[in-house]
Every structure is written in structure tokens, then in C-alpha cells.
Amino acid sequence: MSKRPDYTAPLAAEGVQNALRILEGRWKLVILFQLFGGKVMRFSELERAIPGISQKMLIQQLRQMEKDGVVTRIIHHEVPPRVEYHLTEWGQSLCPALDALLLWAENAPADIRAVLLSGVAAD
Fold first, then answer.
1. Residues of the signal sequence (predicted)?
2. DSSP 38-101
């Protein structure tokens, strides 16, 4: 087992920024939460499960997540072709981290939580 590197503050910040880039995008977290728990979903199921997402945007987000190693696409060669998506093991391992982030947000002071819930960023 390899030892984790000793991080300086700038290197740690850069590492977290790189990780967050994988999750950037309006719909990626919603897609992740749809697929957590080992779910395998067809494209059309995902589309129905995420109101407001366009087909084009769902395709873009899934392709990016596949490129980043978070999602796997399975193509079943039948007529009509069936395409399914599921999280990779690495993608599934995001669940505890996102749960911890959700818990952190839930424990914010009341005034901050009100801002978070309203969707307005404080400057």
C-alpha cells in the first residue's frame, strides 16, 4: 500500500479543486445520486428521473463523467440498441464523501443554512 504524500496547503487545495472539477456541472450531482447504490439505469430512465434536463445536456454530462472514470456505459447490441449506465467502483466511492458534505451543510449556523437553502451566494 502506498503512503499518501505530505500535502502543503497549496497542494491540498489544488487536489481538492481537481476533484471538484469532476463534479462541476449543474446535473452531475443529480445523476450521481440517481445511480448511487449500485443502480443500473437506461438513458431514458435517467432522463425521466431528472426533470428539467435536456437530452443533449444529459448526454454531455454522462460522456464527461464516463471520460472522468465515474460512470460506465454499457451498450447492449440488440434492436433497438439498449444503453445503460452505472457508477464505477470509484464513482460509487463518492457516496460517503457527499454524505459528509451534506451533513456539514446541514450543521451550518442557522443564518448560513438559510442562505444555502435559498440558493443565494453570500459575498
1. none
2. T--EEHHHHHHHSTT--HHHHHHHHHHHHHTTSEEEEEE-SSS-EEEEEE-HHHHTHHHHHHHH
